[in-house]
Amino acid sequence: MTALHFAEGLRELVGGVEVVLSDIWGVVHNGLESFPEACEALHTYRSRGGTVILITNAPRPADSVQRQLRKLGVPDETYDAIVSSGDLTRLYVAEHPGRKMFWLGPERDNSIYRGLEAVTAPLEQADYIVCTGLYDDETETAEDYRGMMLQARERKLTLVCANPDIVVERGDRLIYCAGAIAELYRELGGEVIFYGKPHRPIYERAMALAGERQGYQIDRKKVLAIGDSVRTDLTGAREFGIDCLFVTRGIHAEEFEGLDQLDPNSVMELFGHPPKALMRELKW
């Protein structure tokens, strides 16, 4: 199947849908401001009995993500719960007490180990690496870390990637994320553990929270994912066995100009397997 369905609004797609698993960055905000119509769409869906779980590759715990959402003007009523790759990474750190961690990332992400009995150490003494991002994502790329990653590979260190995204939007620019460093390390032969989309654990956690809200185990046929990344959102939903609404205003915006005029071969090249539906931006 290569046909593309362009939806006018979320209302067309949620008949029989009990749970929406929505991406955050690129769907409800762009890192600088919220998207009011998207927030209203999710709130309206909730008001009609649906459950909304926000799933994000943010390398911070859910409470930290919520504080950011509030600052950007995303109302708490937009969602029921948040699951972040940071939450799952914190579980990994908690389950490895006494092991020395080299933390690679900006100071704003220090909540990744705050409150845990984590022992931090220089790369030369560490037992594993936790990567939450680049030290300076405004000016650096993954290539700036090649030397560090070669050193880590020589020591056979496992790198735990707390954000599998390669890039995200920040306003009208694309900023490199931890996933870019993790992919470089993997190319160099290093071992990487990914937490977050498109990997299964974040979806399992989200479904567990949705089941708690609804009071019963949710059938995946009654779940809709929403996202703006082919690599993480669309791939993750497909591999987990749930439908996906793809928002084209996000990181792939330039690639999707004139999308409605694409031939089937071009559709397959872009998506692999098309999403359930597309919208330029999320609205009811």
Automatic annotation (TrEMBL):
Keywords: Hydrolase. The lineage of its organism: Bacteria, Pseudomonadati, Pseudomonadota, Alphaproteobacteria, Hyphomicrobiales. This is HAD superfamily hydrolase (TIGR01459 family). It comes from Bradyrhizobium yuanmingense. GO terms for molecular function: hydrolase activity. The keyword Hydrolase applies. NCBIfam families: HAD-SF-IIA, HAD-SF-IIA-hyp4. Gene3D superfamilies: HAD superfamily/HAD-like.
